[in-house]
Amino acid sequence: MPQKFLGNGWTFPIKVNSRGGLSYSQYEKDVEESIYIILGTSKGERIMRPDFGCGIHDFVFSPADEFTMQSIKNHVEEALRDWEPRIDLLGVDVSPVETNRLIINIEYRVRSTNTFYNLVYPFYLEEG
Question: Which CATH code is given to the segment(s) 2-124?
Answer without folding.
Answer: 3.10.450.40
